[in-house]
Amino acid sequence: MAHRNVAIVYHFFAHYRRSVLEELLEKSKHHFLLCADTKNAVMPGVTVWTPKDANRFRECRCFTVGNHLVWQTGLIALALDRNLDTIIYLGDWKWPATWLSALIARLRGKRVLFWTHGWRGRDRGLVRCIRKNFYRLADGLLLYGNWARQVGIDEGFSARDLYVVYNSIAAVPAEDPAVVAPDERRRKLRRALFPESPEERPVVCCSSRLGALRRLDFLLDAISQLGADGHPVNVLLIGDGPERGRLEEQARVLGLGMEIVGACYDENRLAEYFSISNVTVSPGDIGLTAIHSMLHGIPVISHSNREQQGPEAEAILPDKTGDFYRDEDRADLAKKIRKWTQTPFADPAISRACRDLVRRRYSPDAQRRVIDAAIDGESADIVAEHIAEVA
Known about the structure:
Rossmann fold, 17% strand, seven-stranded parallel sheet, 15 strands, 15 helices, 2 domains, single chain
């Protein structure tokens, strides 16, 4: 198909969206215009990214209305823009301007797609009615996972219009640091981080904002239980946040080997941290933390409550790329951590499985191919089969 002129409309573009957006700008057959606010007024703590080419960006400012609604400027003009063939909106039903702009765009003959998490659980009552009517404004949905797609099908949406684009952070590194990093280099870093522990002691890590939703206090309780049972494990936390002081005090009281290295955005340094880890554990809800870990070849453990999880939890394949523990069951979490910390470092075969899954589903390249096909109006079922064959 011929190329189309496509606008992507977001509240703002977070720094972790950079890779997929640059992939679309540089490698898609379609021409993209990115439309968003240059400031983050809705998600405190998240860094904003904008493209270098000013001709590929249009500012659309956001204003909060009350506690939940957001009005975004410039969206009506986009819907009326004759140069645009397709508009991809952030699919949040609490944005009135999106309702109006999407309706006008459809009436003007443009193809409309919503890029959205979709359904995390089963809606009921008024929310169910509002969400369904909002999604029906679009020709198709770009969803983060297969769970949301199945719920959409159950809600009466056509399977051909529900595209699973997954999520990504960056391209998969050419080399797997968890496999190729020399053992002596990894041991040296362990000595630096945990000078009072044997180098062979396993390490559990988590790269995330240190907030209450991650339930890292629950992780420390499970690690304490493992130590009491004769299986000591060190903890490496990569990040910062409001829970840091409380976690440090908890580790001190429990006598745990824990190091918090703070926020880190240097992928080379992050690769080194992951290389000394056996497994990532996020006892609370998990999102891109799972993909970031597997990108570097490290399996992931999180809780089993599907309706409370982020869509990235679908990347956790029990016994292959990680495990789920029974939600709120500390003993089961300890059991799962013990299972994945039987060797000094992560199993190279497991590392390869993690990276292969990210390459096939959770990479900017894989996302671009699905988005291009959705813009062309191909059936989502055929797209999924084709992507699987290419991978």
